[in-house]
Every structure is written in C-alpha cells, then in structure tokens.
Amino acid sequence: MERMERTKTASEGGSEGPEEAAGAEGTYGRQRTRAAPRAAAGAVPGRAMTSFSPADEERRRGVRRMKLTATGLLLFVAVVYVLAKWAGEQGAGAWTGYVAAAAEAGMVGALADWFAVTALFRHPLGLPIPHTAIIPTKKDQLGVSLGEFVGENFLSQDVVRQRLRAVGIGSRLGTWLAEPEHADRVTAELSAALRGALTVLRDSDVQAVVGEAITRRADAQEIAPGIGKMLEKVVVDGGHKRVVDLVCVRAHDWLVAHEEEVMGAVQGGAPGWTPKFVDKKVGERVYKELLRFVTEMRDAPSHPARGALDRFLTDFASDLQSDTDTRARVERLKTEVLGRGEVQDLIASAWTAVRSMIVSAAEDERSELRLRVRASLLSLGSRMAVDSKLQNKVDGWVEGAAVYVVTTYQGEITSLITDTVAGWDAEHTTKKIEAHIGRDLQFIRINGTVVGSLAGLLIYVVSRAVGV
Prior knowledge:
- By secondary structure, this protein is mainly α.
- Among the domains are: 2-137 and 425-467, no CATH class; 203-339, no CATH class.
- Helix content is 83%, strand content 0%.
- The chain has helices at residues 2-12, 24-40, 54-89, 95-121, 134-137, 139-153, 157-167, 169-177, 180-200, 203-220, 224-237, 241-257, 259-268, 276-299, 304-322, 324-339, 341-363, 368-386, 388-408, 410-423, 426-467.
- It starts with a helix and ends with a helix.
C-alpha cells in the first residue's frame, strides 16, 4: 500500500513543476534507512503521522492546485521572456527590453522561491544539496527544539502561576457551583464515581483488608487502660446508675413473673432428708427476701448495695489501669474474642452492610447523602463566589498543584513531545506538514514571481535612466 501511495503521488504530481522532486523516492528511501535504527531501538510508534484523514486529502489537493498555479505563472513569464526577446530581435521597439527584463527577473524570483520552498520538504531535483530536505532530515532535532520551547515558555513556574492567577479559578468555580443545575450535575457525577468505585472493589478483598486492619490495630494497642478510664469517668458522672435502675426493674419484674420457678429451684437444692413442708417454707422465705432486696434496691437510690456496686466499679476501673494481672486477663480475653470466627464474620459483614447502604444512597436522588452533598456544594459555591479569602486559598491550591506537576514532570512532558516526533515516519510527516502549510508556501512562489518581475523592471528602468 505504501508503494502504491508513493506511485500515486508521483503520478499526480507529474505536472506540478520543478519542485516535484525526481529523486524524491531516493530521498525518502535514504531517510527511511536512517530512521530504521531508531525505530528498532524502541522509538515511540507514530500514530498521528501514518495515515491521511479526508481533511488532509482535501488540503493536499489544494496544495497541488496552488503548485500548478505557481508553476503555470513561472511558465507564463518564461514564455513572455522568449517572446519579448524574439520581438526585440525583430525590431518591435524598445518596450521589448522592459518586458524581457521584467520576465527575466520574474523567472529568477520564481526559481529562487521554488528552490527555497522545495528545500523544506525534499532535495530539489533529487540532488543532495546541503541544507535541503530540512523537515525529513531535521525532524528529530525539530522535535527536541519544540519540546525545549514548550518546556521553557509554557511549563515554567512563573508562566503557570501568572496564567492561572489571571483565570481566577476560585471565583469562576464558585459562581459555577452556586448554580443549582451545576451542583446537581456534580452531585450526580460524584455519585456515579462512588458507585463505580464500590462496584469495582471485590467484597472479599475489602473484607479481608478491613478484618486484618481491625485485628492488627486491636492486637497492637492495649485496651484495658482505655476501658478503665472510660469506666472511671462513667462512675464519676453517675452514668451507670441508669443501667443499675434498669437491671433492678427488670430483676423485680422477672421475680414477680417467675415466683414458682425461683421457689422450685430453692426446694430442689434442699437435702433429701428434710421434710417437704420445711423445703417449701424455706423456698418461700428465700423468695420473699430476694424480692424485698431487689425492691428496696430499686426504690432506694442510697441503698447500701448500690454504694457497694459503685465501690466495686471504681476499684475495677482502677485495676484496669494499674493492675498488671487484670490488664493481662483483659488482653487474653480480647485475643480470644477477636480470634472467634463469629467476630471475624461480623467484621467482614460490616463492609457488606456499609457498601450496600452507600450504594443505595448514591443511587437515590432524594437520599440524605446526595441531598447533603448537593447542599454542601451550593453553600461552598456561594461562599467562593463572594469570599475573596476563600477564592485566594483555592487559587493557591490550584496554582501549587499545577506548579508541582509542571516542575516535577516537566522532563516527562517534554520528552513526550520529542519521543512522539521521533517516532513519526519521516515521509508521512513531511507530506502531512506540507498538506497543512504547503498552500501558503506556494503563494511565496507566486509573490516571488510578481515581485521579481517588478524588481527587474525597476532595475531596468533605473539602469536605462542612468545610462541616458
């Protein structure tokens, strides 16, 4: 296909004038030979310069039309020159000298500009004249120069800060976010991103990570002192009294509802040689005393049992913080509890529950999560739109992030340009560049013909005037 393309191009350009390099095939062949080691060395494969789009083809047709026009103008002045010289020899008059001088200078200008334009893309007439075929032979150097130019003039710290400061990102972002439809859009995008992230994550992996993190954290940190401090504060603040009240109420109600079971348990524990009526009397007595004790403890906040419980909890809180044996027992209990499969399953299932809750909230447009995010975005946008301090802070964050990126990765960014240009095929690169700028370059040839003719005519007139 490449050979057919070259053949087609050569056949189409047969009438395009002197710049249709007779040695173009040899030139490109030598260029491809020189580029082969670079490609073999691992240059970035060219993607943008290996084919022509319909727009490129249209540009190439425009270039060919302009080449025909410029070449036709060159042939026209050449014919005019020949006719003027012939007419002068035939004695047609002095005017033939002026026309011949203008036509001769026009030919010189056209040929000089043809050489200059052609030398950009190929060797004129296939001759290896030095400093010609600049684009195919200097492609890699042009890429390096382009990368250095971009790095020095676009990726410098001062340029980035100045440009971002002129944009006023904080003010614009605040004004944009203050619009309800924009806040809705951002909320929807954030929800979609959150759902996507949670969908990609595998539950088993997250559960394993969460379980391992919790277990490692619990193993690494002793919990007894923390529990002791918390219990001590609860006792000092009287927070445990409600729990005691609840236990006493539930114990009283349970005793009232299970009178027979309690007395039966007492009688069942009596010796076998005691009479039954004695066992019954003892059971009734024990039940009544137990019920009385619980009732008094429930109704009397200053009951001695409550004070004893307070002292027990206080001592236990102190032991949790300072007693070595108590702290060791708590650590052993912690290890046993965390090692149980039920606890690990509970930790793992927590992620599933949290994930389902978050996904459901993200999908529901009226969920509390999305409503709060939307309200926060609107509030943030309204503040940023009028608060200059917040705007400056946001601008500073953006500038700092951008400067960090361009200063840290400037080499990588510029190397992307140089490596990409180095990976382009020289022939396709030349053709594509010529398709983009070749039409304008042909105007140089036309202007050279016209300006050369005028200059030649002026010189001839001045020389005749001085001679006279």
